[in-house]
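User: What would this chain look like folded?
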Amino acid sequence: MDQLRTLRRQVHLSREELSARAGISSASIKAYETGVRHPSREALIGLLDALDADAFARQQVLSGAGYAPDFASPADRLE
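Assistant: Here's the prediction, encoded as structure tokens.
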């Protein structure tokens, strides 16, 4: 998932920092970024939330991973 790595680098986060924000191990993030593992839709949405990805980036990453679009905002998911 090169798109995930690109987003992470755009916001200047290390894998460890993203791991702490998203509650997903840095080893899992590395595996997702390198294509060794495929994240669940829920894990991917959690990473996108932690990256504060905009709507366009969210849809690009989700569709690239083969998932349906996510029209809820992070705030909507907290309710």
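The chain has a mean pLDDT of 91. If you want, I can go into more detail on any region.
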